[in-house]
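Example record

The entry below shows one chain as it appears in the dataset: sequence first, then structure tokens.
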Amino acid sequence: MRFKFVAISAFALLASGCATPPPPPPAPGSAASKVVAMGELKNIAIGNMRVARENGFMTVGVQLCNTDKRNKTFYYRFAWLGAEGFPVADEEVWKPQLIYGGQNSFLQSIAPTPKAVDFRLELQTP
């Protein structure tokens, strides 16, 4: 009985020691804080982001890079947020995008309402 307790305790201690800590959260306001990966994003790097206001509407441009030699397909959509951080427009539909191996791609979008003051880019791979 005592042997079982010691064995289970040792196993639990070893298992907890093997866990890797989660990566630190991105800094607020940084480009990484604007991207939400729905699943694992392998070999897709987020590059520069440009945000501007044109005629009162927020416009966003995001650079993506495929770091793999193979072509990748992913889906994306923008969520437009108000000053309180809540959505100010209906959810967009998922848009498919093909990015060739080693290629840079640019996603551009315009907020559907002038109430949008922030955004979130949601990415999903099949």
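Notes for this example: Strands lie at 35-38, 44-54, 57-66, 72-81, 95-99, 104-110, 118-124. The first strand starts at residue 35 and ends at 38.
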